[in-house]
Fold this sequence. Notes:
alpha/beta; 2-enoyl-CoA Hydratase, Chain A, domain 1; 3-stranded mixed beta sheet; globular
Amino acid sequence: MRPGAAPIRRPAAATGDRSFGRRYAAPVTDEPAVLLTRDDTDPAVAVLTLNRPARLNALTTELKVALLAAVRELAAASDVRAAVLTGAGKAFCVGQDLGEHAEALAADPATAFDTVAEHYNPIVTQIAELPFPVVAAVNGPCVGAGLGFALACDLRVAAAGLKFATAFAAIGLTADSGLSASLAHAVGVARATELLLLGEPFTAEDAQAWGLVRAVVPAEEVAPAALDLARTLAAGPTLAYTEIKRAVRHGAVSDLPAVLAAEAEGQARLSLTADHQNAVADFLAKRRPTFQGR
Length: 294
């Protein structure tokens, strides 16, 4: 556990999909804003659940602070090899709680957007840089910063018929939570520009056709499908996954010589790992490799 972090403990009660297994949380109030759980089937899989179902998991300061603390704690957990990010209830996340934002504007417009640097930016950075794969289980509406959080994950499973939207221009804002980059990388500059300018909702089926989500399944199957995918990833070469994530992020903003140099450095690091060395030996012996994440 990182210094200064609140201890993870089991809450007296928790809401959300029971298929995600046992519940743990670092509560801020009697009803935790974020639930940090372990999968019963595979404890190497962690689950982060945004827990304001009555408000469609709209992002208050309390929720953002709790989410950032939970993601930082995950980053320091040596026994986690994959994670799932989802929302409790009928929504994944509908973005900023506009009631709280209106209060911040009324109090001091000059500081109302401090939350971008204090919360949104580090949350997205921490999710994207977690040293293992992260699957977004998009169980319902996914809007604004919620879409930014989903795109900070490595893979996405979405409920059939759900709606995504950028929504920023509708309230006179530009994108935050990395969407101006992550959305463009996911669907291309032209489509990302259209989605951000017009703010028109798009469906899970649209997102799958554009390559933004891996699978679209009935709503009741989102949690099991995301967990199955996370379990598969947890059994894989975790250190190689970390290097792949780093290489893709670097490659999206670098020229070819820099990409080639970074790839070479990553391969050199992986050549020293037990997973790589054992997998080569297993291949030559015609055995199926098993990975220990080291």
